[in-house]
Design a protein that fits this description.
89 residues, mainly beta, Immunoglobulin-like, four-stranded antiparallel β-sheet, three-stranded antiparallel β-sheet, 7 strands, 0% helix, globular
Length: 89
Amino acid sequence: DFEGSVPEDFRLFQNYPNPFNPTTRISYQLSYETDVTIEILNLLGQKIKTIEKGIKQPGYHEIFFDGSGLKSGFYLYRIRAGDFTETRK
C-alpha cells in the first residue's frame, strides 16, 4: 500500500493495460518533491506528446493517457524527475 508513505526511491511502473486501446494508466513514485515530465515517444525516441509536466509531491502518482489520436503501433514513455530518467515500452 503506497498511501501515506514516502517512497525511498524514484520508480516508473509498467503501464496497464499493455498493449492498450485507447487508454492506459502510467504510475510512478517520487521520493521527494521535484519537477516531473512524462513524454510519449515513438520507437526512434522522438517526442510525440508531453502528458505530465510540473512540480509533484513525494509519493505515488498515476495518470491516464488516451492514445486514440495516435496510429496503432509501439510507443515508449519516459519520465524525467530531477536526476532520474527512465523509459519503458
